[in-house]
Specification:
Elements: H1 3-12, H2 16-23, E1 34-39, H3 43-52, E2 58-64, H4 68-82, E3 87-89, H5 93-97, E4 103-106, H6 114-122, E5 126-129, H7 137-149, E6 154-156, H8 164-174, E7 181-190, H9 210-214, H10 240-244, H11 246-257, E8 264-270, E9 283-289, E10 294-301, E11 312-318, E12 321-326, E13 329-334, E14 344-347, H12 353-366, H13 374-393, E15 397-400, E16 405-406, H14 410-416
Helix pairs in contact: 3-4, 6-7, 7-13, 8-11, 11-13, 13-14
The structure holds nicotinamide-adenine-dinucleotide.
Nicotinamide-adenine-dinucleotide (NAD) binds near residues 42, 44, 108, 109 and 159.
């Protein structure tokens, strides 16, 4: 039954007032609702759920977090936006068990993206999973496998993929506007990020199931920095700015340049600015050799001077000129000696997240692939992960994309696959 037909059938069961209300678009007939289960009620989980709520057909019967304080914030959001008090659980498997959940929103730290996504696919739920797709390349491959085997719609939460001006810039690159592109530069220089200090190890706060927060990650004594938000700067849970921001910017670069994988990747950097207990580099450069172009990624914490007045951005250099894009807009600059066209600037567009979520919801209904389908999400998250693999091994990685292995480099391959702390096991993990 198509969506309008389903709505009409549902409306037949309603009172005249309710039917009039649905018809006016103020409410959505029950048969047309999408019931979202939120896993991870932190900053992004609540932001994503609020975006889902912009769509009248979305309900949320259950929220999950391992921290009571975060759960309370998730509950408050649902109450404020929809008026109901959702069920609360600390074990995400109880969300996936529920028959009244159609869609699972995974907004946990990166080390906890793969398992909920795979289990949700196995249970016949569709998934909106935050970026990067997973903590490692091998987990991402297992997620693609789960989505395909169980015929699920899985969208990664890289919202700029739905940004109108990003799309226009990508289209300009792809149409040959700046000629043949042979160099791409991505950079993110963040003066708003800084030292997180040296807090002492200790006990997790009351109301936190810390063992469940760690999940498949190695056992580690609780430290306030290895927890909400700052987990990003620890290798056990994430990949630092290389994956946190890299995924957003490399996503636009790969969208424009296509899915031919890199052949070689190297990376340098270090902790040159921060004096704290974080692990990931505050300064990093990764260099990629793709078959027809080179790409560089650069990040810096604690200072924000960027290229062409932009603290972050993506810069494509072609034979006829350059195209530069960030959230403020995009511009094209002709190659001075050719000048086949005039320089031009185009404004940025509004927040891309509503369109990204809307695309996902539409695909849940139509069963089409979403714009940031899990397979592309896996490919481009992998590009970001390879920067870290090269950095952590200190070697140039020769990438065998067909096998998703580094050639002749066991240490690199150990970072590409993943070891889960028992009893957690990831279904569909190659070689497991
Ligand atoms: N798309 C974007 O622009 C964007 C922006 C920010 C964050 N993110 C992504 O969103 C994810 C979350 O980031 P954040 O900044 O919201 O982090 P956060 O620490 O604020 O929130 C994560 C939440 O997940 C909870 N959690 C941990 N393990 C859990 C488990 N097993 N079950 C249920 N809940 C669990 C934590 O207690 C916490 O409340 C990350 O993967 C991040 O990369 C995306």
């Amino acid at each position: 039954m198509g969506a309008p037909a389903a709505a009409a059938a549902g409306a037949a069961m309603l009172s005249a007032n309710e039917a009039a209300s649905y018809a006016s678009g103020r409410q959505v007939a029950p048969s047309n609702r999408l019931r979202v289960g939120l896993i991870g009620c932190g900053g992004m989980g609540r932001g994503d759920l609020a975006t889902f709520f912009l769509n009248p057909e979305v309900d949320c019967p259950i929220v999950c977090d391992v921290d009571d304080a975060m759960l309370a914030q998730g509950v408050a959001l649902v109450k404020q936006q929809r008026g109901n008090t959702p069920a609360t659980v600390k074990d995400f498997r109880r969300v996936i068990d529920r028959k009244d959940v159609d869609v699972v929103l995974v907004a946990t730290p990166d080390h906890w993206h793969a398992l909920p996504t795979v289990y949700a696919c196995q249970a016949g739920k569709d998934v909106y999973c935050e970026k990067p797709l997973a903590k490692t390349i091998a987990e991402g491959r297992a997620m693609v496998e789960a989505a395909r085997r169980h015929n699920r719609v899985v969208q990664m939460g890289t919202q700029w993929r739905s940004g109108i001006h990003f799309g226009a810039a990508v289209e300009a690159v792809r149409s040959g506007r700046i000629g043949k592109v042979r160099q791409v530069r991505c950079w993110a220089f963040h003066d708003w990020l800084g030292d997180v200090g040296h807090p002492k190890d200790g006990m997790p706060p009351a109301g936190v199931d810390y063992d469940m927060w760690l999940g498949p990650a190695p056992k580690h004594v609780f430290n306030p920095n290895r927890f909400h938000f700052n987990f990003r700067w620890f290798w056990d849970y994430a990949g630092g700015l290389m994956t946190d921001w890299g995924v957003h910017l490399l996503n636009i670069a790969m969208w424009a340049m296509g899915t031919d994988p890199p052949k070689h990747v190297s990376s340098i950097g270090g902790k040159f600015a921060l004096d704290d207990n974080s692990e990931t580099p505050d300064t990093q450069t990764a260099i990629y050799e793709f078959p027809t172009y080179t790409l560089t990624w650069e990040h810096r914490v604690g200072s924000g001077l960027g290229m062409n007045g932009r603290t972050w951005g993506i810069w494509f250099t072609g034979s006829d000129g350059a195209l530069i894009v960030d959230d403020a807009g995009w511009e094209i600059i002709p190659e001075p000696k050719k000048k086949r066209w005039e320089a031009a600037k185009f404004p940025g567009s509004v927040d891309a997240r509503p369109a990204h979520v809307r695309n996902f919801l539409d695909c849940v209904k139509s069963r089409q692939k979403p714009v940031e389908d899990v397979e592309f999400g896996h490919f481009m998250s992998g590009v970001a992960h390879l920067g870290n693999v090269a950095y952590r091994t200190g070697r140039t990685i020769t990438w065998d994309a067909a096998k998703e292995r580094a050639v002749g480099d066991p240490a690199a391959n150990a970072l590409i696959t993943c070891q889960y702390r028992r009893p957690w096991r990831l279904p569909y993990l190659k070689g497991a």
